[in-house]
Amino acid sequence: MTEKGHAIIIGASGGIGAALHSVIAASGDYDCIFPLARSWHDDRHIDLENPASIAAAFERLAPYLPETRLCVLATGLLHADGKGPEKAIKDMDADWMARNFAVNSIGPALVAKHFMPLAPRQGRVIFAALGARVGSISDNRLGGWISYRASKAALAQIIRTSSIEWQRRNAEAMAVALHPGTVETPLSEPFGRSVAPGKLFTPAQSAEHLYRVITALTPDQSGLALAWDGSVIPA
């Protein structure tokens, strides 16, 4: 990174988020890091399922946003409260689908709404949200996981659309969706047994991969969905 500033990490109490906080802090690339999480009930609290909570968090951060060069969302919902990804069409449930979209699509969109207009108007600025390879429509050959796939596909479109508008006010502003791979966290724990040897990352490994992609980003990559190794995930 060539310009210091501040960084925001949303989901900083989770496996990937906490590891990203450690990697970014160790890099020395930013003057100050603001970690936020749903599980913290103080001035670091943010709940992506609650628009008022998102607005309140960014109201607190407003004085720092003009100098904030990185906003990362290390968040996602795949299973919770005994519910998980659908195996078939007959398993679809309106409330579960709505919750997937609230966490995986609408929440990140509202973060972009509050961050992008107040972010620096010149120089390198990055908005990155955790996407998923299964959100790729053209790469879907297995079916299932309808709510999760659809919500992550929606996130990719939100990233793409907002990035176009954002670059009109700052040519060096970049918005991307990042697929972290399969990581040893509570989110992926029920599905880790099916991962090929060498493809299951620790949170620290995933964070290193993701931050390497973030630091190498160029403006022509804005709006893309990228994998942990920097490769482009098709829409």
Summarize the structure.
This protein has 235 residues and is an alpha/beta fold.
Account of the protein in words:
With 235 residues, this protein is an alpha/beta fold. It contains 5 helices and 8 strands; from the N terminus they run E-H-E-H-E-H-E-H-E-E-E-H-E. Strand 4, helix 4 (146-169) and strand 5 (173-179) form a beta-alpha-beta unit. Helix 2 (51-61) packs parallel to helix 3 and helix 3 (94-115) runs parallel beside helix 4 (146-169). The radius of gyration is 17 Å and the shape is globular. 45% of the residues are buried. The mean pLDDT is 94.
Count the E strands. Answer: 8
Helix content: 25-40%
Structural class: alpha/beta
CA gyration radius, whole angstroms: 17 Å
Order the strands across the largest sheet as they lie in space: 2-1-3-4-5-8
From N to C, what is the helix and strand string?
Answer: EHEHEHEHEEEHE
What is the mean pLDDT?
Answer: 94
The number of helical runs is 5
Could you list the spans in which at least 5 consecutive residues all have pLDDT below 50?
none
Write down the overall geometry.
globular
Strand residue content:
15-25%
Main sheet summary: 6 strands, parallel
Termini Cα gap: 28 Å
Features:
235 residues; alpha/beta; two-stranded parallel ribbon; globular
Write the layout of secondary structure elements.
Blueprint (H helix, E strand, L loop, with lengths): L5 E5 L4 H13 L4 E5 L14 H11 L6 E6 L20 H22 L9 E6 L15 H24 L3 E7 L2 E2 L16 E2 L1 H14 L8 E3 L8
Parallel strand pairs: 1-2, 1-3, 3-4, 4-5, 5-8, 6-7
